[in-house]
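Dear support,

I submitted the protein below through the web form. The confirmation email said the job was done, but the results page showed an empty box. After a refresh the structure appeared. I'm attaching both so you can tell me whether what I see now is the final result or a partial one.
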Amino acid sequence: MPNHVHLLVCLLDETEIEGQCFSWKKFTATKINRKLQQAGRFWQSESFDHLVRSPEQFQRFRDYIARNGVKAGLSASDYFHWRQGDAM
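What the results page shows now:
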């Protein structure tokens, strides 16, 4: 997606979602800003998260993420969709 990211992950043990998201955002913002030769905040400070409570809900989120680019009217070359098991 050109302006946001969707992740469907399983966090291990006592991993806190807020701390993990902060870590991902800091790491990716640093890399992206270097690539763009920019500095400053890249991501919004807040995140929108859901707790997956069932296999059915997991599949709904997985399907939503897979369809999100097409729903936004993007061509396959405009966004990147990967899921575990997909070839890189």
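Response: this is the final, complete result; the empty box was a page-load delay. The helical segments are 17-36, 55-71.
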